[in-house]
Amino acid sequence: MLSVETHAASPWPDAIDWEVRAAEASAAALALTPFAALADAAPLVEIAVRLTDDAEVHTLNRDFRGKDRPTNVLSFPQIQDDLIESLANSDDGEILLGDIVLARETCAREAEEKSISVADHATHLIVHGTLHLVGYDHMDDASAAAMEALEVKALASLGIANPYADQD
Predict the structure, then answer these.
(1) Backbone dihedral region of 35: left (phi > 0), alpha (psi from -120 to 50 degrees) or beta?
(2) What 8-state DSSP symbol labels residue 16?
(3) Cα(131)–Cα(77) distance, rounded to whole angstroms?
(4) Neighbour-count burial of 132, counting CB atoms closer than 10 A to its CB (0-12 exposed, 13-18 middle, 19+ buried)
(5) In angstroms, what CA-CA distances link 15 with 22, 26, 117, 118, 162?
(6) Can you tell me the distance from the alpha carbon of 33 to that of 50, in angstroms, rounded to the nearest whole number?
(7) How many angstroms separate the CA atoms of 39 and 53, rounded?
(8) Angle in degrees, 0-180, between the axes of helices 54-65 and 104-114, rounded to the nearest 10
(9) What is the DSSP letter of 93?
(10) What is the reported pTM?
(11) Which residues does 40 contact at the CB level (< 8 Å), separation at least 6?
(12) How far apart are CA 45 and CA 115, in angstroms?
């Protein structure tokens, strides 16, 4: 069973139930991957989503990625992607798939630049982060296009417009 735990470390818009939103976004992303069975697996499959500020994300980005600046989202997979498929048959109790961390100020600025809501942009970032947790990346054009296509499908299933539409 998929469990998404959300912790708001700094103020995020109160009108959103972030726990529900993060769970829906992660489930929508996972459903489109070869690892969809994890959502109904015997062990509890956990994703932790931390909603924080630019300062904390800046520190994490510097310490773990060597990039001395904030970014919108960071993903920290806890399981090698080549081992994920075997987890659906596990009965070990709990499996932490990984952590997703969002930076409030960067997310809000990007949402304003795109003329979309913070909630929709954050949902996109959680979908994006979830895909990273199961091994997707955007290191080259082909993998970026594949990942973006999954993001667009996941977001459409949640009633959110294609965030890449203006890039075509």
Answers:
(1) alpha
(2) S
(3) 10
(4) buried
(5) 14, 20, 12, 11, 23
(6) 23
(7) 29
(8) 100
(9) S
(10) 0.91
(11) 1, 2
(12) 34
Return d(Cα 25, Cα 80) in angstroms, integer.
21
Strand 94-103 to strand 73-77: parallel, antiparallel, or no bridges (unpaired)?
antiparallel
Q: Which two tokens stand for residue 105?
A: 């100020």
For the record, the structure tokens of 124 come out as 């996109």
Hunting for tokens 């069973």 — which residue is that?
1
Can you read off the two tokens belonging to residue 18? 């972030």
The CA distances from residue 138 to 6, 46, 146, 147, in Å, are 25, 24, 8, 7
pLDDT, tens digit, for every residue of 52-92?
A: 999 999 999 999 999 999 999 999 998 877 676 666 555 56
Q: Which residue has the tokens 């075997």?
A: 86
